[in-house]
Amino acid sequence: LRRAAGAVCAAGRELWTFSRNDPRKPVYAAKVATALALITLLVFLREPSDIVSHSVWAILTVVVVFEFSIGATLSKGLNRGLGTLTAGGLALAVAESARHMGDQDIVFLIITTFAVGFATTLIKVHPQMKLYEYGLRVFLLTFCYVTVSGYNTGEFVGGTAVSRFLLIVIGGAVSLAVNIGIYPIWAGEDLHHLVARNFARVAESLEGCVDGYLTCMEYQRVPSKILTYQASDDPLYSGYRAAVEAQTQEETLLGFAIWEPPHGPYKMMKYPWQSYTKVGGALRHCSFAVMALHGCILSEIQSAPENRQVFSAELHRVGDEAAKVLRELGHRVKTMTRLSSPNILSEVLHAAEELQKKIDQRSYLLVNTDRWGEDTAASTTTCSRHEAGAGASRDNEAPPPPSEHAVIINIPPMHDSESNTSLARIASVNVPPLHKSESLARFDSAASWAAMSLADGLALKPQGSWHHRMPPFHPGQPLEAAESRTYESASALSLGTFASLLIEFVARLGNLVNAVEELSDKAGFKDPVEQPSVL
Amino acid sequence: LRRAAGAVCAAGRELWTFSRNDPRKPVYAAKVATALALITLLVFLREPSDIVSHSVWAILTVVVVFEFSIGATLSKGLNRGLGTLTAGGLALAVAESARHMGDQDIVFLIITTFAVGFATTLIKVHPQMKLYEYGLRVFLLTFCYVTVSGYNTGEFVGGTAVSRFLLIVIGGAVSLAVNIGIYPIWAGEDLHHLVARNFARVAESLEGCVDGYLTCMEYQRVPSKILTYQASDDPLYSGYRAAVEAQTQEETLLGFAIWEPPHGPYKMMKYPWQSYTKVGGALRHCSFAVMALHGCILSEIQSAPENRQVFSAELHRVGDEAAKVLRELGHRVKTMTRLSSPNILSEVLHAAEELQKKIDQRSYLLVNTDRWGEDTAASTTTCSRHEAGAGASRDNEAPPPPSEHAVIINIPPMHDSESNTSLARIASVNVPPLHKSESLARFDSAASWAAMSLADGLALKPQGSWHHRMPPFHPGQPLEAAESRTYESASALSLGTFASLLIEFVARLGNLVNAVEELSDKAGFKDPVEQPSVL
Predict the structure, then answer these.
(1) N or C: chain A end with fewer CB closer than 10 Å?
(2) 3-state class (DSSP) for residue A299
(3) How far apart are CA A531 and CA A358, in angstroms?
(4) Could A60 and B145 be called an inter-chain contact, meaning their C-beta atoms sit closer than 8 Å?
(5) CA-to-CA dists, residue B231 to A52, A440, B445, angstroms
């Protein structure tokens, strides 16, 4: 008994915190209770037994029709009313025909019931009829009820149908009056806020992914909830997942919002709710790019921290600017203001271009160059490999001892006329010794990177399924040089993948901006008056 | 009138094709109709007016409870029965108390109704209560009804509740008997087939993406349905989207399947339906990787066809092997057989390794090497750029005129002791003139690629929003050299991105295999007897 009391207390506390977190839920509950109390009062006040014996229909209507949002209530109420009306009419006609049939009336009624039941159910399960499912259910219910009771009680038929319909109308009217009169909850408003809110959540995820990537965040063990795409508390993951998962909710809310009359800031007939879901869809398309970025963090093949640092400023800037654009768009959608200028993307595009240029200049960091010459000059490769090993034993932070640098340029095949200049050009590429410019530091970092990623290759996370299953790999045993080189190159490329996915995200922003602009046009967003406040 | 007749005809044809496509739907409709006809017959046969006046409850129960799958029918029926029973008990107690209250009974009843309505609705909207939502609705409905009619009719209370409950039991029993007796449709079976079928759909999408990428498939204009993640007929897109979208359906079916008794091949108490949704989730995680691959095809930045050809065999093999693994896993899940050996992944991992090695050897195709030396030796870059332009004017197919080749190796900084050997090494890298080996052809293709991608950069799809919005870009005008170089490098990198996303997909397959193995263990899949038939 004490345990039961404890469970009840726990449930009560849970309900209390639940109500505190979303005050609209207890308000809704109070509204339903008020409508029920009103109906009960009505039943008690009016004493005709005809009404009382059918009072169940008013109560049933309130319980069934009173939904969370006004759109849902309206849609269910209309479905219910229409279903009852048409079914009542049809059933009366059927009952009337049956009365003139003599002995075979029961057979006729049963066959009719079967036929109507079959047709209604078949229509109900058709995907296009989803909006009217409830109406069809009510139609079938009413038809059967009126047929049966009409047959049994003879004359009462008309009276039953009318008083029943009257009580349904009363129940629906009370529901609607209470629902709109007290603290109205509009599905359209919910849809609007849902779409607007997800912008900020995707922006958080994006920033988190870029930051996490640059700080070399790693999952000791990727949560199995992420691997099976279930809800998880991971902040990087929950942000974009919320935007992806919002789809079902957006569609449901859209189905209700189209029933709602113009209200509040949505003062237009045929308000373009559809466009909100389109914006939600475009945001979802962007979220999938963030998901791919997160995939780079989840992946077992990781690039070396040194390399990431080289691109850190540019990646950061693209991530920040893209998040800023997302937040700005979300703010515009939320406050229903137009974009102040068409150049909302100019900053982020510039940042992406800078990143692209940096990649262009430093793309040697994105590939493993060790084996390039292998087919043509195996000896050189062995040499450079040996040096990479030597580099590993050196302190990475200390400046390298002065040395002669051979700079690496891809020189395509030349025409005969130019062949005699090629040696001279190679000579000109050699940086004079002791010249400690920025370019020298760059090559040093390249060398230390080669060494690091080799070590990285040896220490690749042993718990990963990838390595476990790779036939020649054994976690405890040192890898062979060829395999470790392959992983070096994979890990180097992973940085390039991250960067190009980030650029792809920026490209998708354009599509999102288009969707928001279409929404602004169709929904008649107001022009921004004050200085646009960048969040 | 004729138009109305036409519309009815069209609707009829639509229903006919709909029924032909999924015969289970008309069967379900026929079952509902049969149950309704049975109930009507029952009502007509038994003549006591007490039963007849309450016969609505039996009909209502059939209409409301008879769902498509047996699990859903059971779950709704139990909810309905329990809700009615508890609410009836509570309402009788309340009505009894009210009768001893004298004048204030109406006030007491209304306050009780309000309190019960509030509490029930609040519990109903709690997310954890979703399974019992219908039961709570019925509870509230019954409570109000019995309270009101109990107050009004005095003694009838007990009789009403009992006969109502009896009729609900009859309605539920008829529904369940018809539903199980005639062509049963199990939610668990649906869940099983849904999960198994999606494997093949993802495999198709994957093959389509790899093939499309290698044949340089391009969207003239990306369908806006894809950009807003709506349903579309695109075969590449619909495959992985089906797996992603299946989530809601899987969860719904899981909610019904757990109510179903052991049946058919699922002959275990507490059958692990949860594991099926986990497999579905792991497949979804893989689908997101396919989605990222498709993103590479949708992207405006595309790598040159020549480059893709270089990796064609390897990419193809990885795609084929991965699709084979997916189909094999789907077949295993469908036929409920264990994996015959733990090495199902060995082929695809080997293929991925080969791809990785190829990338390692040819990674110069993935980056734009033109600007590597720019900081240190600008003059050389100009030179090589000039040559790329010259290469472009040459016929790409014809063998190049014999020339001296400077091969490109990344030589990290060296120690002093080695500095004197560097010039000699550079000399050794030069391929002797007139030596038409495979390596020569390789460099030729590299050169022609550089020329091609330059042309590509100039002819980048003008309708894309990316380029429209890029400030210094004007579709009609030739790009400046720096920008076109940046796009060359981006387009070169995009091939690397595709390859590494494909490898990431292979890595995620491991997770999927784990999920399938977990399912085989928990659900006691049978061991394969015959030679495993690879589909």
Answers:
(1) N
(2) coil
(3) 34
(4) yes
(5) 50, 54, 41
pTM for the model: 0.75
What kind and span of H or E run contains B214? helix B187-214
Q: CA of B122 to nearest chain A CA: how many angstroms apart?
A: 5
Q: For residue A141, give the nearest of B18, B60, B470 by CB distance.
A: B60
Residue range A76-92, pLDDT digits in tens? 888 888 888 888 888 88
3-class DSSP state of A530: coil
Residue with tokens 């295999």: B513
Residue A405 pairs in a beta bridge with A431
- A126: distance to nearest CA of chain B, Å? 8
Distance CA B263, CA B371 (A): 68
**Residue among B144, B151, B374 whose CB faces A36 most closely:** B144
- Whether residues B301 and A500 touch (CB distance < 8 A) is answered with yes
* Residues B196, B328: Cα–Cα separation, whole Å: 10
Closest C-alpha to B242, from B196, B278, B180, B210 = B196
Specify which residues B337 forms β-bridges with: B526
Q: Name the token pair of A366.
A: 């994105």
Interface with A, mutate which of B28, B39, B40, B429 (most A CBs under 10 A):
B40
Whether residue A287 is predicted with pLDDT greater than 50 in this model: the reply is: yes
Q: How confident is the model at residue B63 (pLDDT cuts 50, 70, 90)?
A: confident
User: Which of chain A's residues have a Cβ under 8 Å away from the Cβ of B511?
Assistant: 227, 465
Closest alpha carbon within chain B to A507: B466
pLDDT in tens, A125-161: 888 888 888 889 889 988 887 777 766 655 445 566 6
* pLDDT confidence band for B283 (50 / 70 / 90): very high
**Per the CB < 8 Å rule, is B379 touching A284?**
no
Structure tokens given for A145 = 């009820």
Burial class (CB in 10 A: 0-12, 13-18, 19+), A305: middle
From B15, B68, B503, residue closest to A490, measured CB to CB: B503
Q: Which residue has the tokens 């006729």?
A: A108
Residue listed under structure tokens 């189909």 = B327
Amino acid in the structure at residue B398: A
Q: Which amino acid would we find at residue A206?
A: L
Task: State the DSSP string of A411-474.
Answer: B----GGGGGGHHHHHHHHSBPTT---HHHHHHHHHHHHHHHHHHHHHT--TT-HHHHHSTT--
- A53's enclosing H/E stretch is helix A49-53
| Contact between chains at A33 and B64 (C-beta distance less than 8 A) | no
CB contact under 8 A, B410 and A372: yes
Distance CA B172, CA B179 (A): 10
Residue B521 in tokens: 């263990």
DSSP-based three-state secondary structure for B234 = coil
Contact assessment for residue B254 and residue B191, using Cβ atoms and an 8 Å cutoff: yes
Spatial separation of the C-alpha atoms in residues B103 and B90, rounded to whole Å? 21
Q: How far apart are CA B77 and CA B65, in angstroms?
A: 6
Q: Do the chains contact at B36 and A140, CB–CB below 8 Å?
A: yes
Which residues lie across from A266 on neighbouring strands?
A: A263
Q: Which of B29, B299, B490 sits opposite A122 (nearest CB)?
A: B29
Of A29, A125, A372, nearest to B408 by CB-CB distance is A372
CB contact under 8 A, B288 and A285: no
CB A140 within 8 A of CB A120: yes
- Give how far B297 is from chain A: nearest CA, Å: 11
Instruction: Report the C-alpha gap between A238 and B452 in whole angstroms.
Output: 43
Contact call for B388 and A412, based on CB within 8 A? yes
- Taking contacts as CB-CB distances below 8 angstroms, the residues of chain A near B111 are 37
The 3-state DSSP composition of chain A as helix, strand, coil percent (nearest 5) reads: 75, 0, 25
From the list A499, A455, A509, A459, the residue with the least C-alpha distance to A327 is A509
